[in-house]
């Protein structure tokens, strides 16, 4: 018997009605990576080998890497954007902005951040983990910084509005242009107190759209946001997320910095 999948769009959510097929992805038209989407052969039928000389069918869930283009990359981009992991401006290519969005999504879903959309990532895109708050008493507009996972979540109206990969203090001693210290991002409860738009230059380098919340420590856009802690203490944010984050967070908004022992 041939299986049929119907999609019904209700209030911006795709609902899949199928025979023994799970509800997988919203809005993207992506079926489950656990199913080929092909009808099962009739009972007792013998599978037929491919015709000689026929080109093999492309994988339904290909591994996507930096520089790739095409429909699947576009689907990943749209899916991440809807989930709050901004991949930057619209486009079809797997560019550096999409790569750091994939890192953030992977970390938020308990996966190691890797330079590809692999099968575990496809499965997580199908059934993403719920973003849980780091603090139970935070206000509706706040920033939460997870030092262990290197993730920043901006909350608006009590909902996660932007989740981004970050790079925080590396814990090393430094001296640069007469400014010495230890590269630590302290934990605690803070409030945004000073905001600088555009590019600014300080003793430790250039910063893009900075929001300070703990003396001279703040979160800002940077051209270098590696997968490991690498800053002098500030929270580096990918450039494409710096300006939207700056607009979301106003003076006086709460900023919570934590180092949880495990995923919340």
UniProtKB/TrEMBL annotation:
The keyword Ion transport does not apply. Residues 141-258 form the L,D-TPase catalytic domain. Keywords: Cell shape, Cell wall biogenesis/degradation, Peptidoglycan synthesis, Transferase. Residues 33-55 have a biased composition (Low complexity). The keyword rRNA processing does not apply. Residues 33-65 are annotated as: Disordered. InterPro entries: LD-transpeptidase, LD_TPept_cat_dom, Peptidoglycan-bd-like, PGBD-like_sf, PGBDSf, Transpep_catalytic_dom. PROSITE patterns: LD_TPASE. Signal peptide: none annotated. Pathway: Cell wall biogenesis; peptidoglycan biosynthesis. The active site is at residues 220, 234. This is L,D-TPase catalytic domain-containing protein. It comes from Streptosporangium brasiliense.
């Amino acid at each position: 018997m041939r299986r049929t999948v119907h999609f019904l769009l209700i209030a911006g959510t795709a609902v899949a009605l199928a025979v023994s097929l799970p509800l997988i992805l919203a809005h993207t038209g992506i079926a489950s990576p656990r199913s080929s989407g092909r009808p099962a052969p009739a009972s007792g039928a013998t599978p037929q080998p491919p015709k000689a000389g026929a080109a093999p069918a492309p994988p339904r869930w290909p591994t996507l890497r930096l520089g790739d283009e095409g429909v699947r990359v576009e689907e990943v981009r749209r899916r991440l954007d809807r989930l709050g992991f901004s991949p930057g401006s619209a486009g079809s290519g797997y560019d550096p902005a999409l790569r750091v969005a994939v890192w953030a999504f992977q970390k938020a879903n308990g996966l190691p951040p890797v330079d590809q959309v692999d099968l575990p990532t496809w499965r997580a895109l199908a059934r993403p983990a719920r973003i849980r708050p780091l603090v139970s008493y935070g206000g509706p507009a706040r920033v939460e910084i997870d030092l262990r996972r290197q993730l920043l979540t901006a909350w608006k109206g009590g909902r996660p509005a932007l989740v981004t990969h970050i790079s925080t203090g590396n814990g090393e001693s430094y001296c640069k242009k007469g400014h010495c210290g230890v590269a630590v991002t302290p934990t605690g409860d803070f409030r945004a107190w000073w905001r600088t738009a555009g590019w600014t230059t300080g003793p430790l380098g250039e910063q893009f759209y900075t929001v300070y919340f703990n003396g001279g420590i703040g979160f800002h856009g940077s051209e270098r946001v590696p997968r490991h802690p690498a800053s002098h203490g500030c929270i580096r944010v990918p450039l494409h997320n710096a300006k939207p984050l700056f607009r979301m967070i106003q003076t006086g908004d709460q900023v919570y910095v934590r180092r949880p022992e495990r995923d919340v």
